[in-house]
Design a protein that fits this description.
The chain is an alpha/beta fold. The chain contains nine helices and 15 strands. The longest helix is centred in the last third of the chain and has 20 residues.
């Protein structure tokens, strides 16, 4: 029987709730501990979610000798710092997206994984789902013809004023929070990095963007367009246009167990039904495989670095009001 890996939650963030179910469902994982900035907060969270241990500081969680993997769900500006601290403490890390806010941070994280021999993966859960794998399979089959344009969007109305997502210094902004998804999706489809980007942003009161509209040009002639935002109604889609057909993905970033794609050829729509697993289970099992069997993580660190480079280029373009070459 495979060794069971003990997980610790680094914070009591709302996103943890998405991971608790698969951690409890997998035979290879045990959710052992949670950490908060106070013991009372950690105790209350542990009681609510039936977690055996609670730590009153992040340092205490990292010092727990029985924790194998840390799930870093801290605000964006703390991802690099605490991931590196976790490596130094002998832990593997599943880090929420975006993995970091600068290329220097990403490079330091990569260096530390090599020094410590620990596994690091970015938590883009959609990349592990059967729907995403099917999209990639369809693209690679050539059925769409020559790829031309990729379009996508991810927006919602953020109602919590003063939320860290709106504070620039904390890695706020819609492009970091939700725009990173269509950027990641487009890069995955094309299979290479953009060579030129152009972005526009609408700044919010915290200095970060409330809305972002971006374009990416790839060397093979594919162009990608996306928008993200905190002030629009909920929208989430990807559309991939080829010379022979169009593939539409209505729920690309949070696919359900059962989902469908729409392939349009010659004006005729074909629905492609897909059965997958619970959305967040894939990233949990991917971490287990990497640690137990030394297999590569589905999302490589080079891939994560490429996404950060694209985001930074788009933000730079918006600030300079001109195209940026990567």
């Amino acid at each position: 029987m495979e060794r069971q890996l003990n997980w610790g939650l680094l914070s009591t963030a709302k996103i943890n709730q998405a991971l608790i179910k698969p951690l409890n469902a997998s035979k290879r994982t045990r959710l052992l501990a949670v950490a908060s900035r106070s013991q009372s907060s950690a105790d209350a969270y542990a009681r609510e979610w039936k977690i055996p241990r609670s730590h009153g500081s992040y340092e205490a969680l990292l010092a727990d000798p029985e924790i194998d993997i840390v799930y870093n769900s801290l605000p964006n500006h703390l991802h690099a710092e605490w991931t590196i601290k976790a490596f130094r403490a002998g832990k593997h890390v599943l880090c929420e997206k975006p993995i970091a806010l600068s290329l220097a941070e990403v490079d330091e994280m990569i260096r530390t994984t090599k020094e410590t021999g620990k596994v690091l993966a970015e938590a883009f859960m959609y990349r592990h789902h059967a729907q995403t794998l099917k999209v990639k399979e369809i693209i690679d089959s050539g059925i769409l013809g020559k790829l031309q344009v990729i379009k996508g969007a991810f927006t919602f109305t953020l109602t919590r004023e003063g939320n860290y997502r709106q504070i620039k210094e904390m890695g706020g902004g819609s492009i970091w929070d939700v725009g990173c998804y269509p950027i990641s999706f487009a890069r995955m489809i094309v299979g290479e990095e953009p060579v030129e980007v152009f972005g526009w942003q609408v700044e919010g009161p915290g200095g970060s963007d409330d809305s972002f509209i971006g374009q990416m040009r790839f060397a093979n002639g594919v162009h990608a367009q996306f928008d993200s935002g905190f002030k629009s109604p909920f929208r989430s889609f990807m559309e991939i246009v080829g010379s022979e057909a169009v593939l539409k993905i209505s729920v690309p970033f949070k696919p359900q167990v059962k989902s469908e794609l729409i392939l349009v050829r010659g004006g005729v729509e074909e629905k492609i039904k897909i059965s997958g697993t619970e959305l967040y289970l894939g990233e949990v099992e991917d971490m287990c495989n990497a640690i137990l069997f030394n297999t590569p993580t589905r999302i490589t660190l080079d891939d994560s670095r490429g996404n950060i480079a694209a985001i930074l280029g788009l933000i730079d373009s918006a600030n300079q009001k001109k195209p940026v070459f990567l």
